Amino acid sequence: MLSLCILTTFLFSPCKIEAFVTRSHHTPRIALRHDKEIRKRGVLFSNGDNDNFNFNSFKLDLTEGVLSNALLPAADTLDNLTDGWALSYADLSPESEETLLGRTFLATNLAYTAMGLLLTWRGDVWLGTITDIASVASFFYHYTQLSKKDDLVVRFTLMIDYIVAALCLGTAFSYILVDMSAIPVSAYVASGLSILFLFLSWLWEDAVPYCINHGLWHILGGYGGYLIGQAHLHSS
Fold first, then answer.
1. Is the dihedral of CA 160, 166, 171, 175 positive or negative?
2. Rounded to the nearest 5 degrees, what angle is found at the Cα of 151, between the Cα atoms of 219 and 140?
3. Which is nearest to 11 in space by CA: 114, 129, 136?
4. Is the dihedral of CA 119, 226, 178, 195 positive or negative?
5. pTM surpassing 0.90?
6. Which of 105, 126, 142, 158 could disulfide-link to 211, CB 3.0 to 4.6 Å?
């Protein structure tokens, strides 16, 4: 229910996510300020354009020091391994969090919320809960993407989205491995189509096709995960 409240609040009364970034010529460092306290951290992300563009201090209201510190090594490693691709993202201009298409796209995250709540209610508390969390993580990533927040902010929320999505996908895959025959064909179809639309959103990154394809990834992915979770419950 908390995720539902958060998403609907942002959809109908968009809040502003503050991010203040300063630049320096020193070794790239990140400082997350919480309750007026500055905590310096290591390298967060490579900037992708190889121009030695450094970040020295950073304030992000959505994070806590412990969370950000835990994510820094993983984010930097992922960025380096994929040469910046994994933490890159589509520029959805001219759409924004205030346009009809932008808000409709953000609303597709409610599919995760609905499926998560249903799974929890029907007994799969683990998959239901992380699916619910995924709805919030995905929403905040796409909100920062649409609202043209600073590059560092968008990448930070993208990293969180990856982690939660990996938990959901890993859990669903483990359910399939336990008893493949228990999973209905409709679950495989929905999941397969969701992955197809995800790849299409990566290949076709103009605002309109991206919002449509990635929105369908949200909807079909949530539905497929729900069907897999239900089948696992019935077979166990």
1. positive
2. 30
3. 136
4. negative
5. no
6. 105
* 218 residue type, one letter: H
Interacting residues of 180 by C-beta distance below 8 A, sequence separation 6+: none
Tokens of 175: 């359910």
Neighbours of 204 (CB within 10 A): 14
- Separation of alpha carbons 210 and 106, rounded Å: 12
Task: Decide if pLDDT at 114 tops 60.
Answer: yes
In angstroms, the CA 30 to CA 56 distance is: 5
Residues counted in the chain: 236
Torsion of CA 185, 188, 190, 194, to 10 degrees: -170
Q: For residue 80, what are the contacts with CB-CB under 8 A and spacing of at least 6? A: 46
Return the SS3 of 14.
coil
What is the distance between the terminal CA atoms of the chain, rounded to a whole angstrom? Answer: 26
pLDDT at 29 over 60: no
Distances (CA, A) of 201 to 9, 98, 103, 214: 26, 21, 17, 5
Work out whether the CA dihedral 46, 50, 56, 57 comes out positive or negative.
negative
Mean pLDDT of 167-189: 96
Q: Which residue has the tokens 């079909």?
A: 220
Query: How far apart are the C-alpha atoms of 5 and 60, rounded to whole Å?
Result: 21
Within 10 angstroms of residue 130's Cβ, the number of other Cβ atoms is 21
Rounded distance between C-alpha atoms, residue 88 and residue 192, angstroms? 24
